[in-house]
């Protein structure tokens, strides 16, 4: 998937996010929010209709941006700021009879926004799906908060129409629809750039990259074509369906990410909002705003999902690189263990002989006795060092955990297939029952099996290498079988792969054996205990 520009950076949670009350550092943000909230009400008045909601409510964008940037702990402070602004503008008049109703109407939206932000962040921290990968949580909060705020206003509007000024089910639904639409427009138009500017001011934002001409041309052509289709449909008498524009913005979001989708949304909004600010029927204005809100929601979520997938792929690639490095380090560790194992026995013999030589030369010439004593000390010190290294290297770096055998075999298959294909060798791998679980360190054990399969691939020429799994009374056996070529030349190497594999398998409480029959077929068997079963 090509990228039109770098996505907005997901705002980072401040280290003081666990605090309950605002800090001194939060005061400039709250003062700025109060001023922005006041200015946003004057803008919203241009789209105010019947009832008490506006069809474009920029204040909602400032609200969600502050809550997401500084944390839901500022919810109460935001409520106080909004109350003070509304008292100053006369929306809440403590001397009037309906001041309590107006107060509740001011408190409810920011309270719901704070709760939704808290809920989304909590779910994102605990979930392990692509929906929890940034920037998807912000997209979900941006769409969910306006909808939840409208739902909490529904019972109040139906039960107390005398206080809300909205009577009848139809008028109530219309007003609440306007509530949702207005907040959605305000949030999706203002929150993304506000968060990006806030990150830019603190030096934590990624500056947008320069889009390629091909990507820019594709986005422009798709958007212009969608407008042309709408105009054509209107001229032939099919009305003005906004489905073409919706699909175009969704396509741009999925192809190029959230920044590109937001720019497309701004273009669409710049064409629709000036029309709806003019005198027109309330029903027509609401219909246009509902269509615009649908385009914004679909486009923004599509762009957020594309960015989340890109970030997830980057994380997976980074994990794969780290895993590859870890495999190399673990292989080197296992090789060290194997080498130490091979030299420890002759070195022990050398130390014994050196000690014996020292004892024999005690009464000999002084120079000979001194040299023998030196050899004895050096051999003993080297033998002790090797024993220490062997004990250290034999320890498992990572704690073994329960590992489904099917997962291990999948990992081995993914690592072994490319090399087998390049050698013209076919792999036959048995299916594994999902209930077979071993206690293992996946990377090390996978490396041991891959070593055996590489040896088998190199030995069998253009034949077939099979990896079979058999359940036994004492655990499970993994069997790698290959047929050697009759005229197979001697393979270069020191046999370290087998030594590494044996060291890893034995460290996991298993055994490794290799048998070659008269027909030249080599059978390498790894026996491992299963979780919950004794060896």
Beta-strand level of the residues, as a percent range?
5-15%
Oligomer status: single chain
* Overall pLDDT metric: 78
Would you count the extended β strands for me?
7
Number of helices: 15
Summarize the helix and strand pattern as letters: HHHHHHHHHHHHEHEEHEEHEE
Cα gyration radius (Å): 35 Å
Global morphology: elongated
Give unreliable regions as ranges: 1-19
Structural class: alpha+beta
Briefly, what is this?
Helices cover 65% and strands 8% of the residues.
How would you describe this structure in keywords?
535 residues; alpha+beta; five-stranded mixed beta sheet; 15 helices
How would you explain this protein's 3D organization?
- There is one protein chain.
- This protein has helices at 27-44, 58-70, 75-89, 99-126, 136-159, 161-164, 169-201, 213-235, 243-256, 258-277, 282-360, 366-393, 405-422, 442-460, 496-507, and strands at residues 401-404, 426-429, 437-440, 464-471, 476-483, 511-516, 521-528.
- With 535 residues, it is α+β, with helices and mostly antiparallel strands.
- The strands form two sheets. A five-stranded mixed sheet has the order 2-4-5-7-6. It has a two-stranded antiparallel sheet with strand order 1-3.
- Strand 4 (464-471) and strand 5 (476-483) form a beta hairpin.
Summarize the topology.
Blueprint lengths: L26 H18 L13 H13 L4 H15 L9 H28 L9 H24 L1 H4 L4 H33 L11 H23 L7 H14 L1 H20 L4 H79 L5 H28 L7 E4 H18 L3 E4 L7 E4 L1 H19 L3 E8 L4 E8 L12 H12 L3 E6 L4 E8 L7
Parallel strand pairs: 2-4
Antiparallel strand pairs: 1-3, 4-5, 5-7, 6-7
């Amino acid at each position: 998937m090509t990228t039109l520009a770098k996505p907005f950076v997901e705002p980072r949670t401040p280290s003081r996010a666990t605090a309950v009350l605002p800090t001194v550092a939060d005061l400039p943000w709250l003062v700025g929010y109060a001023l922005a909230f006041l200015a946003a009400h004057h803008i919203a008045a241009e789209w105010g209709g019947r009832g008490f909601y506006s069809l474009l409510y920029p204040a909602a964008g400032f609200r969600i941006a502050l809550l997401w940037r500084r944390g839901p702990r500022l919810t109460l402070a935001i409520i106080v700021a909004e109350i003070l602004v509304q008292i100053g503008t006369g929306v809440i008049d403590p001397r009037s009879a309906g001041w309590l109703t107006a107060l509740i109407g001011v408190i409810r939206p920011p309270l719901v926004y704070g709760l939704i932000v808290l809920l989304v962040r909590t779910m994102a921290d605990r979930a392990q799906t692509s929906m929890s990968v940034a920037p998807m949580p912000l997209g979900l909060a941006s769409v969910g908060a306006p909808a939840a705020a409208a739902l909490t206003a529904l019972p109040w509007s139906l039960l107390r129409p005398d206080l809300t000024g909205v009577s009848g089910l139809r008028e109530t639904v219309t007003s609440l629809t306007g509530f949702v639409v207005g907040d959605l427009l305000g949030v999706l138009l203002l929150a993304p750039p506000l968060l990006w500017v806030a990150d830019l001011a603190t030096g934590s934002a990624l500056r947008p990259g320069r889009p390629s001409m091909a990507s820019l041309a594709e986005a422009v052509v798709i958007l212009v074509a969608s407008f042309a289709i709408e105009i054509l449909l209107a001229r032939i008498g099919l009305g003005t369906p906004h489905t073409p524009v919706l699909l175009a913005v969704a396509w741009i979001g999925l192809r190029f990410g959230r920044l590109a989708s937001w720019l497309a949304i701004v273009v669409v909004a710049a064409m629709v909002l000036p029309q709806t600010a003019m005198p027109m029927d309330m029903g027509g204005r609401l219909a246009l705003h509902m269509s615009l809100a649908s385009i914004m929601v679909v486009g923004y979520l599509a762009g957020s999902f594309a960015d989340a997938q890109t970030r997830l792929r980057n994380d997976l690639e980074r994990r794969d690189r780290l895993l590859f490095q870890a495999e190399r380090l673990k292989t080197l560790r296992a090789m060290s263990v194997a080498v130490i194992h091979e030299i420890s026995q002759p070195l022990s013999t050398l130390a014994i002989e050196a000690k014996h030589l020292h004892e024999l030369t005690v009464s000999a010439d002084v120079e000979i006795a001194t040299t023998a004593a030196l050899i004895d000390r050096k051999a003993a010190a080297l033998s002790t060092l090797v024993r220490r290294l062997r004990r250290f290297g034999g320890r498992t770096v990572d704690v073994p955990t329960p590992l489904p055998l099917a997962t291990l075999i999948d990992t081995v298959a993914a690592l072994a297939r490319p090399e087998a294909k390049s050698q013209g060798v076919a792999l036959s791998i048995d299916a594994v029952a999902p209930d077979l679980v071993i206690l293992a360190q996946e990377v090390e054990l996978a490396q041991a099996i891959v070593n055996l399969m590489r040896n088998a691939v190199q030995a069998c020429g253009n034949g077939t290498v099979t990896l079979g799994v058999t359940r036994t009374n004492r655990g499970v056996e993994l069997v790698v079988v290959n047929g050697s070529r009759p005229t197979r030349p001697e393979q270069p190497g020191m046999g370290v792969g087998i030594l590494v594999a044996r060291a890893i398998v034995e460290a996991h409480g298993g055994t490794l054996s290799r048998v070659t029959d008269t027909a030249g077929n080599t059978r390498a068997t790894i026996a491992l205990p299963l979780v919950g079963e004794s060896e």
